[in-house]
Predict the 3D structure of the following.
Amino acid sequence: MGETEEREFLAAREDVVKKVLEQQPDDEILYDLAELFKVFGDSTRIKILYSMFETELCVNDIAKLLNLSQSSVSHQLRILKSSKLVKFRREGKSIFYSLDDEHVRAIISMGMEHVEE
Amino acid sequence: MGETEEREFLAAREDVVKKVLEQQPDDEILYDLAELFKVFGDSTRIKILYSMFETELCVNDIAKLLNLSQSSVSHQLRILKSSKLVKFRREGKSIFYSLDDEHVRAIISMGMEHVEE
DNA sequence: TATACATATGAACAAATAAACATATGTTTA
DNA sequence: TAAACATATGTTTATTTGTTCATATGTATA
């Protein structure tokens, strides 16, 4: 590469960088996005989410099903609740949890496709 | 709830748990799925991925763009490579990275939709 | 209203990991 | 082939976070 080409190359890269920077969403949004994926990024939580793919479950069900302590399940459900990934309803002494919406199912399914490649 | 109802309730829960257990993918797959999302679950990596949404970029571009050290970018790209989220090609001294496939874009987009609600 | 059952919460500890710094590898060109 | 540039890798450190144990809250029933 001659000197002229070199300069042109660098200028072109600068342009690209500038353009990308303009299109990039605010840091705050990307931070939230990372936080969202972080919630999916733990095997216990993924197991919990997946177990609710077809049906609602109460805390005790999940604990037995996945062989986890009640405390651990409850802690993780708290995180899933605060990220709006699950919703819940009380029925007597039990509280039934289920996936919050189709987004959650879609995100998991997309991930599955990538993993199963 | 009477004693009979109580027994029926417990039996019904057991059935549900058993059914879910049968449908649940192997632990290994769910573990891989969590590992995949974990990669998306870091704000630096998400920023890097997002910056490549429209165009390929070399390491230096990304470092300047996101105001990160070359080392940090390189470390994160290694993780993105090994998860098959990005691909790369060499051109002279530079190495250009880009999103590996449409899955990656789809997963990010789905997450964005959830975040922007 | 006392007891049992279901779930939630708080605190402490151990494991995982992102960033920084130093250095190594690989590529081009003078 | 030596120097400059671009990227990769190894190591240490500070921070984050999942689990456990103990305990609290909330609900139903005898």
